[in-house]
Amino acid sequence: MITRQVFIRTVSVYVVAYLVLLATILGMMYAYPKPELHMLVNSLHTSFLDTFFKYLSVLAEWPLYVLALLPLLWKRFKFPLFFAVCELSGGTVLQILKHLISHDRPVSVFENYPDLELPLVPGVDMYHGNSFPSGHASTFFMFCTCCVILMAIHCIREGKLRDLKTKILFNATLLLLLIFAALGAYSRVYISQHFLSDICVGSIIGFTTPFLMLYLFRDRMRRIKTK
Q1: Sign of the CA dihedral 59, 94, 187, 14?
Q2: C-beta contacts of 22-25 below 8 A and 24+ residues apart
């Protein structure tokens, strides 16, 4: 039996690290106007980073979905099903917000600032509307948070977190997943498809939805066979 306290303690490193990151971003958003902040966090462009972030951004368009389906090859249904429910739920909320708020993308906003040169990456097709929030940021955080939750449940059930070495390795993995999600979300800012506020709210949707779905469907998830 997995108690709420044990589960929260197991994922606490991931949750606390995300909240610290979120608080930092919110502080930056409060301190700087949107165009200035975009230029600030986009001040370092190199050919290597252009290529790296250009292709990292693409992972949220289809590769992460393919990766989420791979467990089906071994007849393991928990992760694909959990990720699908989370992505459909969070994606619905995100699309509603996109079309209700309908903010312009950086390439359109910066047309009003002729003295500022928008950092662009060669070979990236630029979009103009429905900037807020970022769907890519949501997908990156959705995927990684689903991984964290199911890893935590599995390790608790199997009793794999009893020694210090395993706990350190587990927490390091959680932090790596958070770094991956954060870099994936930031890639959207780097290639100037989104503002920092867009990926901030996208990350919140991607982070909170799996925890909400876990709470709502916790009884059904216990009955899903892993083999």
Answers
A1: negative
A2: 22/200, 22/203, 22/204, 25/196, 25/200
Where the chain has pLDDT below 70, the residues are 1, 219-227
Closest listed residue to residue 205, CA positions, set 129, 143, 130: 143
Q: Per-domain residue ranges for the chain?
A: 4-223
Over residues 17-38, the pLDDT tens digits come to 999 999 999 999 999 999 999 9
Q: What whole-number distance in Å separates Cα of residue 121 and Cα of residue 111?
A: 17
Q: Name residues whose C-beta falls within 8 Å of residue 171's C-beta, 6 or more positions apart in sequence.
A: 13
Architecture of domain 4-223: Up-down Bundle (1.20)
**If 0-12 CB within 10 Å is exposed, 13-18 middle and 19+ buried, where does residue 199 land?**
buried
